Amino acid sequence: MKIIGVTGGVGAGKSTVLEILKEDYGAGILMADEIGRELMEPEGACFAQVRDAFGEGVMKRDGTLDRGKIASAVFRDQAALKRLNGIIHPAVRKETERRLQDLEISGKEIAVIETAILFEAGYEDICDVVWYVYADEETRIQRLMKSRGYGRDKCREIMANQMPDSEFRRRSGVVIDNSGSREDIKEQIATSLSL
Q1: Residue 15, marked binder
Q2: What is the pLDDT of residues 140-176, one digit of tens each?
Q3: Which residues pair with 7 in a beta bridge?
Q4: How far apart are CA 169 and CA 152, in angstroms?
Q5: What are the angstrom distances between the C-alpha of 25 and each of 22, 86, 97, 116, 183?
Q6: Is 3.40.50.300 the CATH classification of the domain at 37-108?
């Protein structure tokens, strides 16, 4: 089974690449953010640790964690972010590796791990190749304003906290330019899979 790591900045269009890999090639898709969300549910492996680390103030009335409050708590507090990442990242990694085994057992030829922090979380060591999905800054801003309702300043603030383009390019084996049409992206994916 070929394991492809897919990464890139916010708004680059990683989801388009994932859709094509799933629809056209039958790839098994593992999204680290989704796995992290599942692990923070009340029955998840990280729930109690996050609640204990951040206190009752991050709880909703229904007994679930308020992800918005947690995000606010860590946004400008590096120590709090480090504490949260120390709980979430190892658990997500363990669950991702378990799901990779399931995909291999099920006969998948391609598995994809998608995360914006692929390098920061050390996933490149379990990937056969890393694909960097690129789109220029203005395209990304327009996508985020449309899809998430962010203002231009918020988009820039988020982007400033992510790895720069030059570093993504240096550390990735393949660059998928997602500034063009879906057909153009499909051609780049077909070429990249044949490498």
Answers
A1: yes
A2: 999 899 999 999 998 888 888 888 999 999 999 999 9
A3: 132
A4: 25
A5: 6, 34, 21, 22, 15
A6: yes
Instruction: Give the pLDDT confidence of 64-95 residue by residue, as tens digits.
Output: 999 999 988 898 788 999 999 999 999 999 99
Kindly state the tokens that stand for 43: 């029955």
State yes or no: 12 annotated in a binding site: yes
Alpha-carbon gap, residue 69 to 90, rounded angstroms: 22
User: Any idea which architecture 1-27+109-195 has in CATH?
Assistant: 3-Layer(aba) Sandwich (3.40)
Annotated binding residue at 149? Answer: no
Is residue 14 a known part of a binding site? Answer: yes
Phi, psi of 130, deg, nearest 5: -115, 130
Record the pTM. Answer: 0.89
192 marked as part of a ligand binding site: no
Strands, E assignment, the chain? 2-7, 28-31, 110-114, 129-134, 174-177
